[in-house]
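User: Here's a structure from my thesis project, written as structure tokens. My advisor, Dr. K., wants to see whether a designed sequence matches the one we expressed. Can you design one independently, without my sequence as a hint?
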């Protein structure tokens, strides 16, 4: 077995914290391993390590200290595993009611957009390293990871969404929203609803970043593939002003309306009151923090992910609700999104 995967396996056996991961379109698998089971947190994002932050950032972002770091090259293999797990209709009524409630608040004018989500519990016999290998082979353009901390749990995912990357003071992020299933590989026709929804996310990010950047450049709107789904994406770049800190940028961006809603405070309150479960680390973010002493970060939004516990896999899925949303379609969208992880089990 590959040395990074081997070490991950070893760290699970030894009950020690680590994250192994591969960045989008890279063949490099990297690992950050901590030698004690201490739970470290970061508030200022100035430390070196791997950060794993919850949706509710006030609960504190976890930091894995880079006591050991290794990397290797992963050669893609054809993915042979095809899931036999059927899609369940469980939770449909609750989710549809939740979307209807969201729509009422949107129609009252109090909220413009809210991202509503749910969890799906399924049994699996697959082992964490085996699952991570399947993610690597199936989702080459995603950020694939396997995270473990004995005091937090075991998570894995293949996210299509960058929160923010900062290299030599150059900032890169994306506005990602709008979802359609991939059918026959043909590029989809985007309706007004999706285009508007994604436009709102783009404007929010631009506004939020303006105080920290010299200039902000928006690239062309693209249709991108994430597993069996299409999304709309606008790349955004800029140069950080000399006094702009990483923590201020992260706090300005998180949570974006792609995972929370608008206005952020009201959408957050609606989510916490009505979703009926705790998102914990789903729609939080994760990634490299100042590794090798460089003031560089590479953070991704924790989407298309699941938490593994014993033989249970808890998959998390959600979607943006706006005035034009149709509850039944929103349910289907979460079903489609769940396939990204379900197909690995
Ligand atoms: C919330 C999720 O995805 C987010 C919501 C999207 C949407 O509403 O269309 C699209 C991509 C993500 O920004 C998820 O995958 O669970």
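Assistant: Designed independently from the structure alone:
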């Amino acid at each position: 077995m590959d040395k990074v995967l081997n070490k991950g396996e070893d760290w699970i056996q030894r009950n020690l914290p680590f994250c192994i991961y591969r960045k989008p379109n890279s063949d490099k698998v990297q690992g950050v391993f901590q030698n004690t089971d201490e739970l470290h947190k970061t508030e200022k994002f100035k430390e070196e390590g791997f950060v794993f932050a919850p949706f509710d950032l006030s609960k504190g972002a976890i930091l894995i200290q880079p006591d050991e770091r290794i990397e290797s090259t992963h050669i893609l293999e054809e993915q042979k595993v095809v899931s036999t797990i059927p899609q369940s209709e469980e939770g449909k009524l609750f989710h549809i009611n939740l979307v209807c409630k969201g729509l009422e608040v949107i129609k009252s004018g109090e909220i413009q957009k809210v991202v509503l989500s749910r969890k799906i519990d399924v049994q699996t016999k697959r082992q964490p390293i085996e699952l991570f290998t399947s993610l690597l082979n199936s989702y080459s353009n995603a950020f694939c990871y396997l995270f473990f901390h004995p005091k937090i749990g075991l998570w894995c995912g293949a996210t299509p969404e960058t929160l923010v990357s900062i290299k030599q003071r150059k900032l890169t992020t994306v506005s990602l929203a709008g979802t359609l299933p991939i059918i026959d590989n043909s590029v989809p026709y985007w309706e007004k609803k999706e285009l508007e929804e994604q436009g709102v996310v783009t404007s929010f990010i631009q506004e939020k970043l303006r105080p920290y950047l010299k200039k902000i450049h928006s690239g062309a709107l693209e249709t991108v593939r994430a597993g069996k789904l299409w999304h709309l994406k606008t790349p955004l770049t800029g140069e950080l002003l000399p006094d702009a800190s990483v923590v201020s940028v992260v706090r300005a961006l998180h949570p974006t309306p792609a995972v929370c809603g608008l206005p952020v405070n009201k959408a957050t309150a609606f989510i916490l009151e009505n979703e009926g479960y705790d998102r914990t680390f789903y729609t939080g973010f994760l990634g490299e923090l100042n590794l090798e002493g460089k003031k560089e970060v590479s953070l991704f939004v924790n989407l298309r992910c699941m938490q593994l516990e014993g033989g249970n896999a808890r998959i998390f899925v959600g979607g943006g609700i706006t005035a034009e949303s149709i509850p039944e379609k929103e349910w289907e969208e979460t079903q489609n999104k769940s396939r990204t992880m379900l197909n690995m089990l």
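When you compare it with your expressed construct, this may help: The first strand starts at residue 18 and ends at 22.
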